[in-house]
């Protein structure tokens, strides 16, 4: 991780100093999720290629496998921004991924219907395009690793276009004189 200085020459330098810690925190949270993969929310799914986006898939949740919270409403378990791992084998540990020729990939949930009747359907954007046999594929497991929405919002705020944003408060706090 890059060393964060005590003084900054600009607001851009100040905001940029938060990027590496944000990436490191995200990595740590993802590693933590993978370490406890056996206990993560898990569902049996069927998916098919989406016509709306490249490497996009429509996923139907067939059933929930994990009783991870007593009396938890599983219809509300998946949210837009969730990072999920989809595999043909239900992993109990990270080393199970890829074992016995199992296929797996990471995906980001891009759409979940508002209508509770259709909450078992969701759209994902996969980390790699999969070739589905017969147009539909039964993957054994969808595991919810973490939600990236807040991280994405923070990253966007840190990378904002400085010319179009009123940064008067930040300038005063940092006592930046020239811009």
TrEMBL record:
**What Pfam families does this protein's entry cite?**
DUF6469
Domain DUF6469 per the UniProt entry, residue ranges: 47-161
Name of the protein described by the UniProt record = DUF6469 domain-containing protein
Taxonomic source organism = Nymphaea colorata (pocket water lily)
Organism placement in taxonomy: Eukaryota, Viridiplantae, Streptophyta, Embryophyta, Tracheophyta
């Amino acid at each position: 991780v890059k060393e964060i200085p005590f003084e900054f020459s600009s607001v851009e330098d100040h905001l940029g100093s938060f990027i590496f810690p944000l990436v490191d925190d995200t990595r740590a949270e993802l590693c933590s999720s993978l370490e406890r993969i056996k206990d993560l929310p898990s569902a049996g799914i069927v998916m098919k290629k989406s016509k709306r986006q490249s490497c996009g898939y429509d996923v139907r949740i067939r059933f929930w496998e994990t009783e991870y919270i007593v009396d938890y409403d599983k219809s509300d378990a998946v949210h837009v921004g969730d990072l999920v791992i989809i595999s043909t084998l239900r992993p109990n540990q990270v080393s199970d991924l890829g074992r016995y020729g199992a296929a797996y990939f990471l995906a980001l949930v891009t759409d979940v219907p508002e209508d509770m009747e259709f909450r078992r359907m969701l759209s994902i954007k996969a980390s790699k395009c999969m070739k589905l046999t017969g147009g539909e594929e039964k993957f054994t497991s969808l595991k919810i690793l973490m939600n990236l929405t807040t991280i994405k919002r923070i990253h966007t705020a840190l990378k904002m276009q400085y010319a179009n944003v009123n940064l008067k408060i930040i300038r005063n706090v940092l006592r930046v004189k020239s811009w």
